Structures are given as C-alpha cells and as structure tokens.
Amino acid sequence: MGYGYINMLSKNLTRETNLTLDIANGVIENRKNPSIILEDFNKTNLSALTQLIFYHELTPFAYIYFSHSSYILPKELMEFFKAWYYFTLFRNAYFQEEFFKLTEVFMREGVTILPIKGLALLGDIYKRESVRTMVDMDILVREEELEKAEGILIKHGYRKDLGKGSESYWKNKNCNIPFKKKERGWPLELHFALDIKRANRDLLPKLWERLRLIDFNKKKIKVLSPEDTLFSLALHQRRFGRRLCLKNTLDVALLINKYNNNFDWDYVLSEAKAGKMCSTIFFALFQANILLNIQIPRYVWKCLKVSFLKKELIRRLIKKDTFSMGCFKKIKYLHLKCHFLVYDSIWEPIRYLLGITQEEFAKFYNLPIYAPETGKLYKARFFYEPYRLFKDKLEKKSF
C-alpha cells in the first residue's frame, strides 16, 4: 500500500476536483471516457471546472475525456477544449520535427543532445496521446560542450532570447540558456545541467553513463534513464512556481507506472542522499501517491528519511492548495511555501532568499529587471518583502 496516504484526499472533494482528478487518471488508465457518474453534471460549476483544468494543464486531455459525452457540455466549452487539443498536437509535432533536425545537425558536429522534460516524455510515456502541453523544447548537452552547442544553434537559425536578464545571470544563476528560432519564435532552452551548481556537490555524476535508446516516431534517440528522468522532473519543479500543477504529477505517475518493475530505487535513494535531494524526491513521489494512487515501495519512504513534521506539512499543503480556487492568484506564494519543504536543510532556502539576485527578485514581483526603481527596491528588499506579503494577504482576503 505504499506509504499509506492513498485516497487521503478522496473525502469531501468538490465535483470539479473529482472531475479534474478523473481526467488525469484517464490518461494513466488509457481511458477515453469518464469513470464517474455524470448524471448530476448540471450541478457542476463549469467556470470552476474550466479554471482547474486549465491551471493543471490538462485541457487537451479534457477534450479526449469528454469526447464521448460532449452533449453535457456547452458547445463553446467543448470547442475550447478541442482547439487546445489540436493546437497542442500541432505544436508538439513541430517540436518533434525540429528536434529530429537538430539531432542530425549536432551529430554531424560531434555533440550529443538529449531531449528532457516534455519532449522526452512524449517519446517515452505519452506515445498514445501526444498532447501533453509544452511551452518550449528543452535539450541537454554536456557542460563542457555548451559553447559549441550555442554556436551550432546560432548557425542554424536560432538566437539567444535572454529577455532582460544578462548572459552571466543565465549561466551563473541558472542551468540553461533560452533561445528562439527566428522564423517561428517558439522557444528552446539549452540546458547544461539539471540544477544550479552548489558547492561541494557533484549532482548525478553518472547521468551521461546511464543513457538509453528509445523509439520515437520510428527514430532511435538517446534519453535519460527513467531514474534520472525522475530527478529532472523533480528538480525542475523545485526551481519553478508550478509545484502543485497536476500535469507534473501525471508525468511522475506515468513514469513510475511504466518502469516500476525495473525501476532502480537504490540508485534514486543513493543519489538523493548524495545530492541532498531527499525532500525533493519525497514531494514528487508523495503527490503521485496520494493524488493518483501510484504505489511506491515502503522501504523508499523509510530510506528517504523525511521528518514526520515535514511530511505532515507537505500533506497539508497538497490537500489545501492543489485544488483551491485561490491558487490562480497565489502561484508565487505557493512556490515560496514549497521552497521551504523541498530542500533537505532549512538553511538552503534561507540562504537562497537572503542571497536572491536582482533578476530573481524582479521576476518574483513582476518588476522591470534593471530599472532604477527595481534596484532601489532590491536594496531595501528586507523591508519591501514583508510589506508585499502583508499587502498581498489583504488582497487575498478580498478575493
């Protein structure tokens, strides 16, 4: 029974939450129709349901889910789901075709590139319905080949898209460089690591030795091992503000479901301890366990050695905020809450907040990055941050 928290959220769920969860479970079960009774569907708050589906990035799957009972939805809503479904198919097909072209180009230059996150998952665990949403194409190269990889991309029609951040910011405070292709404008992120470097920590040193080949649209491509894929998903969500998005939990659930019999849990536990990522992995697995009923070996929970207090705080956060209608307005504060729960040491998130860069400060508060006013607020951030927290809490109450 895994950790024993399965179905903890099943009691007193709203109709809209039950439907959202059933859409995700439909993907896991390869099911194209609802498993719950829709006789009282007229009592459903369609506005709340649509917001939840959109927030959790399940809109294309909602089209599949309702396709055999579309009569219960307003025509306009079904058309909205349909439009997202076909747009996602089109965009994903573009990313796939572009990746295959880049693979050939990089191969000729003697550089290995790997698809990571969305693109890799499409070729591995979403083969039956290739409509997992992606906003960009993520590729990974060895850090020592980063400069060469940048040159290859620029030579083949890409340009750096640094926004208003400096190049040193992207290279020293991130683990990727954003690019765009000139004629299309859809983004590509060139990663040279799965996480930001930390002192005295060699993250996943065996990653490049553990690559595997998969069939992706009749082509053989190299991808991360299932275990390193889990790390890539969990680390990505540690750095960004959509930790409670159900699409990300679905990624983990499908990965574990497919490789469960051959999943190297000992490797995961060993690398999680060495890289101080136990809380990060626990959070990702815990979501899949209690939200989507994914079974995790009992010894994994025990060996991760997450304290009872932290487990309880994570459980309460998931239960309270995953399907809260207020989550749309407080994404950044949910990210801040999660930030204190996904690191093994309390000092790591504190050090991050104390040493936050002006670029990250500006992004968090939606300020112009290098504007003079932003610089002043950044210098006074230890006063500005409590003020904004108090101000936003007042706005939340009015909401």
Fraction of residues in β-strands: 5-15%
Shape: globular
What is the helix fraction of residues, given as a range? 40-55%
How many separate helices?
18
> What topology, given as strand order, has the largest sheet?
1-2-5-4-3
Question: What is the count of β-strands?
Answer: 7
Notable traits:
two-stranded antiparallel ribbon, 399 residues, globular, alpha+beta, 5-stranded mixed β-sheet, disordered N terminus, 18 helices
Question: How would you portray this structure in words?
Answer:
- The chain is an alpha+beta fold and 399 residues long.
- It is 54% helix and 8% strand.
- The strands form two sheets. A five-stranded mixed beta sheet has the order 1-2-5-4-3.
- Helix 1 packs across helix 2 and helix 8 runs antiparallel to helix 9.
- The longest helix is centred in the N-terminal third of the chain and has 34 residues.
Q: What topology emerges from the helices and strands here?
A:
Layout (H helix, E strand, L loop, with lengths): L14 H14 L17 H10 L3 H8 L8 H34 L5 E2 L2 H7 L12 E4 L5 H10 L2 E3 L6 H7 L2 E6 L5 E5 L20 E5 L2 E5 L2 H14 L6 H14 L5 H10 L3 H15 L5 H7 L3 H14 L9 H9 L7 H8 L3 H7 L7 H8 L1 H18 L1
Parallel strand pairs: 2-5
Antiparallel strand pairs: 1-2, 3-4, 4-5, 6-7
Helix pairs in contact: 1-2, 1-9, 3-4, 8-9, 8-11, 9-11
